[in-house]
């Protein structure tokens, strides 16, 4: 991968992610990289670095349409190594052009969203047998708050981010709750010694409300400009 040169110091959050480029199978593809560094805990549904734990970076990589690899975790690990990353991190995939992303911030919460919504629908499908093979996610949300959250609050934050995504989709005129392969990553600062983490991140909590507004704004921009 090659990187663009930063023009200034990026903010300490996903809004400071840098755009990377690479050539793969004759195509020019992009990725967004946020080097969070130490001191962050993340929760994610990603195939690489998913779950809850300390993570130092987030890579949201574009792959070709019709992606056929059956080892996306290994592929993402290869891309991360090619970008000079080491240690634990989160790797997301999408067939959307991640150079056409959206960023938003609210009261310290930051959101970075990439969106491709050609294949979309409602989570509770009315018919049986609607399973689809695992494919790169098409709406990827990376959001961070500069505060410590408990494990339960991190789970709460994922729900809040998802609710904000659905709100933005409906307001944009899309009759859906998302795509079958959406992914999310929520980052929060690791607690300092003796610090009591926030126990809630619902849409009416301090950080949940800020996170929701940032995600809502970023998703709204991504789905109307993509």
Would you mind describing this structure in some detail?
The chain has 226 residues and is α+β, with helices and mostly antiparallel strands. The chain has one domain: L-amino peptidase D-ALA esterase/amidase. It is built from three helices and eleven strands. A six-stranded mixed beta sheet has the order 5-4-11-10-9-8. α2 runs parallel beside α3. The radius of gyration is 17 Å and the shape is globular. The protein starts with a strand and ends with a helix.
Quick summary:
The protein is of the alpha+beta class and 226 residues long. It contains three helices and eleven strands, in the order ββββββαββββαβα. Helix content is 23%, strand content 27%.
Strand order of the largest sheet: 5-4-11-10-9-8
- Report the β-strand fraction as a percent range: 25-35%
Order of helices and strands: EEEEEEHEEEEHEH
CATH topology: L-amino peptidase D-ALA esterase/amidase
Tell me the number of helical segments per DSSP (H or I, 4 or more residues long).
Answer: 3
Shape: globular
Percent helix range: 10-25%
What class, by secondary structure content? Answer: alpha+beta
Features:
single chain, 226 residues, alpha+beta, L-amino peptidase D-ALA esterase/amidase, 6-stranded mixed beta sheet, 5-stranded mixed beta sheet, 3 helices, disordered N terminus
